[in-house]
Amino acid sequence: MNKYELMFIVKTTMESEEASKIAKSYEKAVSENGGKTTNFKDMGQKKLAYAIKKQVNGFYYVINFDGTSATVKELDRRLGLDENIIRHLIIRLDEE
Fold this sequence. Notes:
Blueprint: E1 2-11, H1 16-32, E2 36-52, E3 55-67, H2 69-81, E4 85-92
Antiparallel strand pairs: 1-3, 1-4, 2-3
């Protein structure tokens, strides 16, 4: 399994508790698809550098996990379909 980092931004049109539930659902999705979460970080609400989908703020979350390419593909698919996610990025971390 490879090490990955997932960063995503949730819309601020909802309460922070709801945004946290969405983030936790993606943490759970990692384990459901054969991965293992190593770190989960709630970075809070921040101002975006530029407006995205008419949003100027967003709740930032970072999940570090070990997984396979199938895990990454499924997460990318789910994040792309979720209307509450403004942006997401999954990167493979180098072996140290």
